[in-house]
Amino acid sequence: IMLQVISVFHQGHLEAVNVPKAVEYVLSCMNFDGGFGCRPGSESHSGQVVQLSLILHYFRYLPHTKYIYM
């Protein structure tokens, strides 16, 4: 997923992505511990946390971005 998002983002075709649906799916992968699984209901994985956090960053959907921006 991450490579597809980066490719679309850098090519300037972000309007081709249904951002609300993508964000909804990403957030459905979030677990009680704040991590993300590979799909809804799966256990958290550090690699998924990084990738899905970056996707939310690209979509400008991080609620506390002043602490997260690099």
Q: Kindly report how far apart the N and C termini lie.
A: 21 Å
Strand tally, please?
0
Strand content of the residues, in percent?
Answer: under 5%
Q: Which series of helices and strands comes N to C?
A: HHH
Q: How much is the radius of gyration in Å?
A: 12 Å
Structural class: mainly alpha
> Could you tell me the mean pLDDT?
77
* Form type: elongated
**Helical residue percent?**
40-55%
- Note the quaternary state here: single chain
Q: How would you characterize the largest beta sheet?
A: none
Number of helices: 3
> Low-confidence spans: pLDDT under 50, at least 5 residues?
none
Description:
The chain has 70 residues and is an all-alpha fold. Helix content is 46%, strand content 0%. The longest helix is centred in the C-terminal third of the chain and has 13 residues. The radius of gyration is 12 Å and the shape is elongated. The two termini are 21 Å apart.
